[in-house]
Amino acid sequence: MSQPQLSPEHIRQAAHWLARLWSEQATAEDEQACVHWRQSDPANEYAWQQLQQLQGHFDSVPARTGHRVLASGNRLSRRQLLVMTGVIASGAAITGIGTRQQWQPLLADQRTATGEMRSLRLADGTQLKLNTATSLNLRSDAAGHRLRLLRGELLVELPENARSLQLSCRDGVVQAHHGRLCLRQQAHDSQLAVYSGQASVELQRIEGESVTLNAGEAVTFSAQRVQPVRPADTNQLAWIDGRLVAERMPLTHFLAELGRYRQGMLRADPDLARLQLTGVFSLRNTDVTLARLPEVLPVRLRYFSRYWVKVEPA
């Protein structure tokens, strides 16, 4: 039987459950939710088993120290991250789980946790807004800013007198001198939207293959292919204010977006694919948003635990 294909998300979730169960705050509910998560997908179970094989590496860490590091969750210091990630990464190389690219976000210069949104202001007035579960590296000098988006979504606002920007991701390199643009890296491709100014993107694997976007334009691209340019959707920036704006959005798409902002699993019954949703919903309190769904759609919420929710037909 072949081994399941592991994605960065499988590894991230397995690490999340491992950290939660090793923390001093772990409950029986957490343990049961982890079991459900493992049973829901063969790749989840495989990622879990592979991480379990690394336990010997963690056994060398004093018990209280290990618990303190794991229990601190997304508030780890950079030194703690280096120690913890170094152990995981070394074990990953031995057991074959993950790659250097998959573990890089843990060592990023800037990062946000699931559900966290944060703003940064650089010396020349350039503003960066990091969406949920985003990691990036940042280097600035007299020549300009060089950013590497490792995971997630980033909004950049460059004033006219700002330094030039080079923003790279897995699929391409974006160049801009001023304006407002948003880059999102997804599982299989990336999206760039320009809301003011101008920006160009060059693909990583095809030399000379590039596209220039003007204000109000957006494009989806992979490392080898650029899709047709389309109008930019300003509703997609509602996350800046902690909102999710839906206009006749398929419920399955809505739940996938909402799931980016909450820990654990959020699933939809396949029979709900035909349902659509319109409205403005909170991203800062996803439990409140979920509670609203039965009020506007013929659905019900089934909570297996706090961290595993399934939306089913009513």
UniProtKB/TrEMBL annotation:
<dbReference type="InterPro" id="IPR012373">
    <property type="entry name" value="Ferrdict_sens_TM"/>
</dbReference>
<dbReference type="Pfam" id="PF04773">
    <property type="entry name" value="FecR"/>
</dbReference>
<dbReference type="InterPro" id="IPR032623">
    <property type="entry name" value="FecR_N"/>
</dbReference>
<dbReference type="Pfam" id="PF16220">
    <property type="entry name" value="DUF4880"/>
</dbReference>
<dbReference type="InterPro" id="IPR006860">
    <property type="entry name" value="FecR"/>
</dbReference>
<dbReference type="GO" id="GO:0016989">
    <property type="term" value="F:sigma factor antagonist activity"/>
</dbReference>
<feature type="domain" description="FecR N-terminal">
    <location>
        <begin position="12"/>
        <end position="54"/>
    </location>
</feature>
<feature type="domain" description="FecR protein">
    <location>
        <begin position="111"/>
        <end position="199"/>
    </location>
</feature>
<protein>
    <submittedName>
        <fullName>Iron dicitrate transport regulator FecR</fullName>
    </submittedName>
</protein>
